[in-house]
Amino acid sequence: MSYFRELLPNLMHIRHATIEDAEVLTGLAIDTMQESFGPPHNPAELVDAYIQDTYSVPILRQELADPRSTYLLLETPAGESLGYARLYRHAPPRRMRERRALEIQRIYLRQACLGQGLGRQLMNYCLEQARVEGYKAVWLGVWERNQRALAFYRKIGFEPFGWHYFQFGPERQRDYWLHKSL
């Protein structure tokens, strides 16, 4: 994957995933989850338990078919998947003042792609999609110990508005809620 470092971010392509992408998306989701939250951040068994409950081809097919859900795939010009995001349309937490808000429920890149501007490119696409759909804000949850992601979101202009517990396999972890006005 080191050759990705040489590709310019503007050569990447972002597209809406379809049900036919369920297998590719499942593999990408599992890989990025293990890279992002596996050892040394969490024990492998904890990550595996979460993956077992959350990422499978049938589960992703169901999510892809849900009209409230949009998956975006970030790909190379040759069609190799490097990252993804999920936009989810539902009511934001009560603590969030702006009620017309879209959740960026997942946004992940392969580790080899971090630090190259691809995360910003994918995030900008998510923000533009929210604007086009008439949303006034976006929100997301991020693990309190994910300092890299927290710094990324702060740099883009996200602000904290609360927190909640997130069930990660058998463990309860704390996520911060962040929002950004559009």
Automatic annotation (TrEMBL):
The residues covered by the N-acetyltransferase domain are: 12-182
* InterPro entries on file: Acyl_CoA_acyltransferase (IPR016181), Bact_Acetyltransf (IPR050832), GNAT_dom (IPR000182)
Q: What are the entry keywords?
A: Acyltransferase, Transferase
Supply the Pfam families for this chain: Acetyltransf_1
Q: Which Gene3D superfamilies match?
A: 3.40.630.30
CDD domains found in the cross-reference section: NAT_SF (cd04301)
**PROSITE patterns recorded for this chain?**
GNAT
Question: What name has this protein been given in UniProt?
Answer: GNAT family N-acetyltransferase
Source lineage: Bacteria, Pseudomonadati, Bacteroidota, Cytophagia, Cytophagales
